[in-house]
Amino acid sequence: MIARIRGNSKIEGEITVGGAKNSALPVLASLVLISEEIKIEKIPDIADVSEMISMIRSAGVAVNFEKNTVLARPSNLKGEIREFGSSIRASILLLGPLAVRTGHAELRYPGGCSIGKRSIDIHIEGLKKLGISVNEKNDMIEAIFDKVLKDVRIDLRFPSVGATEHLMMTSVLLNGIHTEIRNCAKEPEIVDLGKFLNSMGAKISGVGTDRISIDGVKKLNASVHSIIGDRIETGTYIIGALSSGGMLKINGISNNVMHNVTNELKKIGAKITASENALIVYPSNLRPFKLSTGPYPQFPTDLQPQMTLLACHVNGHSEITETVFENRFRHVDELKKMGADISVDKNKIEVMPSKLHGAKLVGNDLRETATILFAAATADGPSEIEKFEIIFRGYENIYKKLKDIGIDFEILKIDREVS
Ligand code: EPU
Fold first, then answer.
1. Which residue owns the Cα nearest ligand 1 atom 29?
2. 270-296, pLDDT tens digit by residue?
3. Nearest one of 79, 82, 85 to 60, comparing CA atoms
């Protein structure tokens, strides 16, 4: 799919963000653990969520998804899912829970955005401690659950978001076993998953700290849960507004989960105010900056490509260091096609102020496509973005939202020259 973006737009107006993709995916994966009916609200209607729902349906969970609400009922679980899952990284989260529930799980090898090696060694090490042996077979991955006889302690070599969620979910139904996970990731989405599991009767403490304890229970009860707002969607719109000098109100998000981003932006001169469930971004004179990404509460890697765009618009030389993924600078080549002056040295980039013009661009991963979309919207002249459909993986209702904030675009069926 090719999108033609008109350019020369100011990003302004009012927008409401959806539920967090990275909270919805683990919460949906954990539905293979349920024994009673569950209702979850604010599930974003995006491609990655559809893939996860297809996977849990294929495992035997009855799911109805309408108007951002999931109603789920347990039925006969099976541990083997062959048809779905290779396009999202979060599919790995089903491995341990399905193995515990069925004794044997087999899934396609997890996929996702191509932003680095994205190995799963931390997951596998942790699963082993929980009595699960894992075999990789061509493009499939198999897990066999034997049993755990004594309490478990797992030390993560890196605070992986996915491994923290996966091991937490896998431990929940190890009845009578106490599991302690150390050096955990602390992202708000992990806290949301912990709240959901505890609302069903799980016994988890310490979520949001680097030490999580789980006392396994026999079964989970009926519950209702609402997913937190998407902080990366929010950050994308904040940075878009700041890079175009527009005033934007963003509803559906609490600054409690945004402070690591808004504080960093305020430090460089951004004017942002927060009320209970909204943020307002004002036109601001920004200073150049030095920024490094890292596990929460450090600056999120998922907003690093967007910050590269912002750096093009400030008056001076900025530096950005990426510490989470090995290969997350593919947006740099696209921004350079638009006239950006950026140099890459291993995991660090230097960005000089640059006036961007329209160009023919290609989307490669989710956050990069969002970045070049906003770059194209604010550049001088029209742009075309190939593989634009990647945006549907993580940005809900994007056509309407783009129009609402002043971005003019059309979807082209066939490739053609930018005039
Ligand atoms: N890692 C390993 N071994 C593992 C697990 C991770 O080496 O077993 C490495 C990864 O290769 C990576 C780093 O550790 O270099 C961080 O990976 P992590 O496991 O923390 O990330 P994830 O769970 O795969 C989630 C988000 C990503 C987000 C990262 C970091 C979901 C579904 N995905 O991925 O979101 O970038 O945490 O915050 O929650 C996105 O939304 O665009 C996105 C990529």
1. 161
2. 999 999 999 999 999 999 999 999 999
3. 79
Q: Do 18 and 44 touch, CB atoms closer than 8 A?
A: yes
Q: How far is the CA of 271 from the centre of ligand 1 (A)?
A: 30
Does residue 309 sit in helix, strand or coil? Answer: helix
Which amino acid would we find at residue 390?
I
| DSSP bridge pairs for 3 | 385, 411
Predicted confidence band at 414 (pLDDT cuts at 50, 70, 90)?
low
How many angstroms separate the alpha carbon of residue 367 from the centre of ligand 1? 13
- Other Cβ atoms less than 10 A from the Cβ of 183: the count is 17
Residue with tokens 């971004």: 281
pLDDT grade for 210, boundaries at 50, 70 and 90: very high
Question: How many A from CA of 161 to the centre of ligand 1?
Answer: 6
What's the gap in Å between 287 CA and the centre of ligand 1? 30
pLDDT tens readout for residues 102-128 = 999 999 988 755 545 668 999 999 999
Q: Following CA atoms 51, 52, 56, 61 in sequence, which dihedral angle do they give, to the nearest 10 degrees?
A: -100
- For 160-182, write each residue's pLDDT tens digit: 999 999 999 999 999 999 999 99
Q: How far apart are CA 388 and CA 370, in angstroms?
A: 9
Catalytic residues: 113
| Dist. CA 350–CA 321, nearest whole Å | 9
Taking the whole predicted model, whether its pTM rises above 0.90 is answered as yes
What tokens appear for 81 in the block? 């899912």
Please report the pLDDT score of residue 93 as a whole number. 97
Residue 413: band (very low, low, confident or very high) from pLDDT cuts 50, 70, 90? low
Q: What is the mean pLDDT of the chain?
A: 95
Secondary structure tally for the chain: helices H, strands E: 12, 24
User: Quick one: which atom of ligand 1 is closest to the CA of 394?
Assistant: 41
Q: How much of the chain, in percent, has pLDDT values that exceed 70? A: 96
Ligand 1: lining residues by beta carbon, under 6 Å: 21-22, 25, 89-90, 113, 116-123, 158, 160-163, 185, 232, 301-302, 324-325, 366-367, 394
User: ∠ CA(220), CA(222), CA(227), 5° rounding?
Assistant: 95
Q: What is the separation, in whole angstroms, between the first and last Cα of the chain?
A: 18
Q: Whose CA is nearest to atom 26 of ligand 1?
A: 22
* Closest C-alpha residue for ligand 1 atom 5: 120
Give the span between the Cα atoms of 368 and 364, in whole angstroms. 6
Spell out the alpha helix ranges (H) of 329-365. 330-337
Closest of 290, 174, 297 to residue 231, by C-alpha: 297
